[in-house]
UniProtKB/TrEMBL annotation:
GO terms for cellular component: cell envelope; membrane. Residues 36-251 form the Ionotropic glutamate receptor C-terminal domain. Its main location: other. It comes from Bifidobacterium aquikefiri. It is found in: Cell envelope. It holds the Pfam family SBP_bac_3. InterPro entries: Iontro_rcpt_C, SBP_3_CS, Solute-binding_3/MltF_N. Residues 1-26 form the signal peptide. Belongs to the bacterial solute-binding protein 3 family. This is ABC transporter permease. Keywords: Signal.
């Protein structure tokens, strides 16, 4: 009788354990659907990220929203942050990832991890439309060149044209306006954004020759490989099912 009682108790405990396990599994499977993906971005870099009518828009914005939807997140919260503050903000856990047309560089890899590349880029030169003196990087020697603080443009100029007079500003809009108004002789910035702005302002143009060939990636903390791997997997799916190309065609 005692053995029978013990067997009944053991069976009951096993059943409770199994039910508890099922409950936990169900919660795990719906976790993404009940959570928010927080993303740091500098929304001044059209066509990648910008604000219009109080809403976030751009290639990066739409792509991240599609990735989050694919992964089952219920919401994406964008945190508008100056570019120079994106990596510090990521490391201090102000957001889960960075999506802000960030070039994948060896220097940045020392601080954060990157997703697979999601768009090709490269640095270019923007100049006033009536300028005939600048057609390549070396022509920037002795010129006043405006760049955004914390970007690859600063590093490139210091390494390749040390005699350029570098003016650092906080936003892309300010950088573009300095060239348009004639306050700066040129700007060095990402080619896609430069070409996008030049289409809206007849006072500027983009030099045909590019300075570098690089790629953009999403940024993650080094100890968050799980999120990085999920984003990479979702990115591959969006590229294979046509969603990526559809989003890209809206901006490029």
């Amino acid at each position: 009788m005692k053995n029978k009682f013990v067997a009944i108790v053991a069976a009951s405990l096993a059943a409770i354990t199994m039910l508890g396990g099922c409950g936990a599994g169900s919660a795990d499977s719906t976790a993404a659907g009940n959570s928010t993906l927080t993303v740091g971005t500098d929304a001044t870099f059209q066509p990648f990220e910008y604000q219009e009518g109080g809403n976030y828009k751009g290639f990066d914005i739409d792509l991240v929203q599609a990735l989050a939807k694919k992964l089952g997140y219920s919401k994406v919260q964008f945190v508008n942050t100056e570019f120079k503050g994106l990596i510090p903000g990521l490391l201090s856990k102000k957001f889960d990832m960075v999506a802000s047309a960030v070039y994948i560089t060896d220097e940045r890899k020392q601080q954060i991890d990157f997703s697979d590349p999601y768009y090709p880029g490269g640095l270019s030169i923007m100049i006033p439309s009536d300028d005939t003196t600048i057609s390549k990087g070396s022509d920037l020697a002795g010129k006043t060149v405006v760049v955004q603080t914390g970007t690859k443009s600063v590093e490139w100029l210091k390494a390749n044209v040390p005699t350029a007079k570098i003016v650092e500003v906080e936003s892309n809009n300010e950088m573009f306006l300095q060239v348009s108004s004639g306050k700066a002789d040129a700007a060095v910035t990402g080619k896609p954004a430069a070409e996008s702005y030049a289409k809206t302002d007849p006072k500027v143009k983009v030099v045909e020759q590019t300075l570098t060939t690089e790629e953009y990636g999403f940024g993650f903390r080094k100890n968050d490989s799980a999120l990085k791997n999920k984003i990479n997997g979702a990115l591959k799916e969006l590229k294979s099912n046509g969603t990526y190309d559809k989003i890209k065609s809206e901006y490029f």
